Amino acid sequence: MHPIKCVVWDYDGTLYNDQNGIIGQQLKIIFFKIAKKYHYQLTLKQFEKKTNTLGTWADATNFYTHIPLISLMNQVSRKFNKEKYIKPNPQIVNLIESNKDKFIHLVLTNSTQNEVLRGLKKIGFNKNPFKKIFSRDTTNLLKPNKILFDQIQSSYDLKKENILFIGDSIKNDIQPAKKLKFKAIPIWDINRFF
Question: Where are the domains of the chain?
Answer without folding.
Answer: 6-17+87-192, 22-83
